[in-house]
Fold:
Amino acid sequence: MKIVINGISGKMGAFLFNYLKDKNEYEVIGGISRNELALGIPIYHDLKTCLENETFDTLIDFSIYPYCLEVLKQAIINKINIVSGTTGYKKYDAEQLTYLAKKNQVGIIISPNFSLINKEIKEVIIQIKNNLPNVEIIEEHNTHKKDKPSGTAKYFAKILNVDKEKVHSLRIPGIIANHHLIFSDINQTIIFSHKINNRQAFINGIEHSIIEVTNYKTIDILV
Structure:
């Protein structure tokens, strides 16, 4: 399975490359970055040049919104599957990308958090809110994260029907990603906390997504 990483010079992109390069089932044949890198694979400044020189199955994207949008669209039109962990996508982006993916018969998975967003977690927190209707969301990320609130926090707010003023963002040096959901009524409080201690926490979800889009053409966009 041949892979190109868009945003390979970023923290998550670099971490993912170092992990995948030692896995026999994957072959990272190139990266896309505006930086000059010496990684032992070709590094391209844009997807167009990459497509002219490489043949691959799946593009993994950990870059910056909205720059990533045109990259993803160009990849889909060229029959490349997509796994994206970039945050900031809007509802109309999801609609357009879904349309293009179906038209070109490719898979695409976009998730704000590959370690946490799943059916089981969704069901649990919805059930808690049914019993404790007052909800506040706190998200903590490192100082380099540009978007506020995080994509995961916005996703939680959406499925829990929480107003944006109930979502709070903190930017703290040394933090990777922490999310706290505080449910309460007049008598009690439940705090649901999820803390990322190491980026390895994202790997299983990313690997599962690579298989889903490449082998089964799965389309699943969470924004």
